[in-house]
Amino acid sequence: MEDLNIDIGKGQTIAIVGPTGAGKTTMVNLLMRFYEISGGKITFDGIDIGDLPRGKLRRL
Question: Which residue segment(s) compose the domain that 19 sits in?
Answer without folding.
Answer: 1-60
